[in-house]
Design brief:
By secondary structure, the protein is mostly helical. Helix content is 74%, strand content 0%. It contains nine helices and no strands.
């Protein structure tokens, strides 16, 4: 699965081959074909084994969390950031954007198993925050759209231009700035810190 993520990310889905995945994984081509009949089959398995479990872990954390919704959102954003910041995942995200329109069945699979499920997870956190009076009602719409987009875009930018942009904050600092931006935008007015009157 790790080899598939790397190969799809580096070569693109159309140009990738099962032979290259086998070489990267250090196994024979026959071994790969023993388990997967096509690239599409391997892609489905990759989504189910490497990406969906991350969402399942987030769903479990929501069920078990006893603190504030802001803390829960921060934990999830840190987990997403850590995963998406990996170079192979940045590559893979670019492949999704560039190529999945050519593979409607895989596009639907990714949309239903990853994007929609991730949005439901973030919406659940936002709804929890709204119900507790922590977040503005708009958070229910904003959080599911804004959080993945910011995390994905910023990590793609860091990957592509980080070596040239000398003023770029560290990855951890950028992540915390993103969280502050999101939280300041969705907190109820009474919970937004106010400056001291001078």
């Amino acid at each position: 699965m790790e080899a598939a993520i790397a190969v799809f990310g580096e070569h693109g889905f159309r140009a990738a081959t099962l032979e290259e995945v086998a070489r990267r994984a250090g196994v024979s081509k026959g071994t790969v074909y023993l388990y997967f009949t096509s690239k599409e089959d391997l892609f489905r398995a990759m989504v189910e084994k490497k990406i969906v479990p991350l969402i399942e872990a987030g769903e479990a954390s929501v069920r078990d969390h006893v603190g504030t919704s802001a803390d829960l959102l921060h934990q999830l954003m840190c987990r997403l950031w850590e995963r998406i910041a990996r170079p192979d995942m940045v590559h893979l995200a670019r492949v999704m954007q560039a190529e999945l329109n050519h593979f409607p069945e895989l596009k639907r699979l990714y949309f239903e198993q990853v994007i929609q499920r991730q949005r439901r997870l973030l919406r659940t956190i936002a709804e929890r925050g709204v119900a507790a009076g922590e977040f503005r009602p708009e958070a229910i719409t904003l959080v599911p759209m804004m959080v993945p987009s910011l995390i994905l875009h910023l990590n793609q930018y860091r990957f592509l231009f980080g070596d040239l942009d000398r003023g770029l904050p560290t990855s951890d600092a950028t992540r915390e700035l993103v969280f502050s931006l999101v939280l300041d935008g969705i907190r109820t007015p009474s919970r937004v810190p106010r400056g001291k009157k001078g």
